[in-house]
Fold:
Amino acid sequence: MVRNRKNLLQKKVDILVLGGGTAGCVLANRLSASSNRQVTLLEAGGKDSYIWLKIPVGYLYCIGNPRTDWLYRTEPEAGLNQRSLSYPRGRVMGGCSSINGMIYMRGQAADYDHWQSLGNPGWGWDSVLPLFKISEDEANGADEWHGSGGELRVESQRLHWQILDAFRDAAVQSGIPAIDDFNRGDNHGVAYFRVNQKRGLRWNGVRGFIRPIQKRQNLEIMTHCLIDRIEIKDHRAVGVWYRDLNGFEHYIAATHIILTAGAIGSPAILQRSGIGDGNDLQGLGIDLNHHAPSVGQNLQDHLQLRAIYRVKNVPTLNIRAKGWLGKVGIALEYGLKQSGPMAMAPSQLGIFAKSDSQQPRANLQYHVQPLSLEKFGEGLHDFPAITASVCHLQPESRGTVMIRDRNPESAPAIKPNYLSTLSDQETAVKAIELTRRIVAQPALAAYEPSEWRPGAHVTAHGELVKAAGDIGTTIFHPVGTCRMGADAGAVVDSSLKVKGVENLWIADASIMPRITSGNTNAPTVMIAEKFCREFLKGYG
Structure:
């Protein structure tokens, strides 16, 4: 509850950025580059000073931790056999770049060409590739596809697993080509992921975009500021109400307001501000400022199907991390060399494949891990095993995000609607079958893989659909809830201006009209880069 309202104008700024996640860090950097603009960024979480935000394996201690995670949950999902999933979102400076899997993945060229075909000029692959390169600092140096010297560090992983090499070879034996780079526009193939790390440390949005410029006199970053709502007057955004750590409410007036609160936070803030479906908002007692039924619609996410295989005759993290001696060895390896399991991203080996020969491009992505557990937050199994997690890259299922009440401390209702179409169910079945074909190849035979989840006895189509619902979980890629488009129903136009409201923009993953084919952090950086360039052209 609000303990006190200070109705007097606290202050006024030129540009107000709402959300200190990946996109917010980029905006703070780019928009404050000129000293004639006063930029203020508000972040609901705290600073990224927690030690586990720096060590790559620290995601285990940050996801599910109220210090760094919003602790969202989905509503019970019919497609997941009525299960409710934890839905991690970063509540800390750097946002999800502070707790994610660190994989640097742009998606495929066709993703962006599709965006452009929907009436969004300038969003095709040829237009966005230079923006990816601008922010990139590829450890191998610049070339036709990659940039060097940017803020976003990209390196190879600092560990090696024999079982993953064998899985890579098995994928090749199954007909998937070996490649050396997932970021050239056509991802079909198998390779090791590149990661946002530097010398064994996580490289988040803060380290890349904020630390080098944090002393700029025209940039103010305020943490522990929970956004209540945007003040709208005569269809114009004029300021923002927020709550501080003690529950006191404050107001900042601003000439330009930019939402970067993500696919869950941005639609929720709009809805509390009276921008959304009029019937829904009035039912919650919120005065309607702009009828925009698409706010909170079009939620898309990648559902990962986590197939687990017991193995023999080869080390996996399950065994290496078992017991105090193993844990001490892992800690020493990281302390001395900044390598080993403590330096590893959750997934090391990637595969982009086609669910069937009729697919025009890769529509499946694998994250292969040298470990296994029943579900996130639980301990590793006490037997050697690997996880071959596979997700449908272009799902047809669409979900929703809707606030439950006017209180910004209340979690919204999140309904991804996984596996709600027959096409998505069919692709899930084919994905499990493809995983089995890969594991059956000679390259893995020496390790005697046996299927633990969902189980080799599950073979009928209906059983496999149910199994997908049992082993499926989010891979943390929600997007699309404030989609960009030329049609009347789109929330923002191609410049990312909110339709029907002046002085208000959105620049985060919520604007994606369709989810990208892969991990979504790098595309979010690109979205922020593109917004800044277009915004500054017309800045007055």
Residues 422-439 form the longest helix (18 residues). The domain at 158-192+303-392+417-477 is CATH 3.30.410.40 (Cholesterol Oxidase; domain 2). The CA atoms of residues 127 and 289 lie 35 Å apart. The chain is about 25% helix and 20% strand.
